[in-house]
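Re: Re: token formats

Sure, here are both.
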Amino acid sequence: MEITFEYWNKLATQTVFISSLLGGFSILVIANLLISDLNTRLSKYVMVVATLAASLFLVSIFAWTSVMMMTTVGFPKKIVSSDLTFDRILGVITFLSGTISLIAMISLVGWTKSKKMGIITTIVAGLTLILIFLTMV
């Protein structure tokens, strides 16, 4: 069964919206770390992971926007399903990688405060990752 362009369009629209929110959240963490006085090795790891998440979500936004545009009625070029393949694969990979990076950031950020908070945020992040993967099955 082939997925319709209408379905791809709605999926792309929702994924662009979600990626925008999550990417914005990641950029907010980057901005907060840049203005903070925290300059530990761990805070640098958080910065790297937050930057990775924001970058991956940004690529996801552009990939899914391309899918959205190509599947919108009135697109000036004749499109077949195979024309969407690269953008769909790129969008899925970057969205999932961005999500994993965001969860890693959530896990790491607790360790900047204390060992107890680090354990709690790591457990919460691990459960979040498991629940997200369970929704994909």
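Second one below.
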Amino acid sequence: MKLLVSLFHTSDLNTLCVFDENFNNIKFFGYKDFNNAKGIALFDNRIFVAHKNTEGECFVVIYSKEKFKIIQKISLPETKDIHSILIKDHKLFVISSGTNEIHVYKLIDILKLDRIYPTERIQPIKDCNVLVDEFHFN
């Protein structure tokens, strides 16, 4: 068994860490322009990681599961302050906590584009006195 942990709010370039079942560090990895890894989701042999770069732009960066090398990075220009992500039913669900929305993307589109826009926006909290950054997936 391996455990994948994201280390956000760090200045280190390596923001993801793999541990074994005894919590021994196996490998640190990351991408030089993204030091704010947040949500993680697995699909096939790929690791999808929600990242925010130093300018605040949001991306999903895809790494290989075996070698932890970057495969692709996809810009999500409508997402503000990306947090948790979830893959279900061939869709990627992204928390945009800066807008208090869930952005939904077709997985097939993500795997072939470098910039993508949501096919659906869900606002689970409507007509309430809610501040920005109020919810996340668990």
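The first strand starts at residue 2 and ends at 6. The mean pLDDT is 82.
- S.
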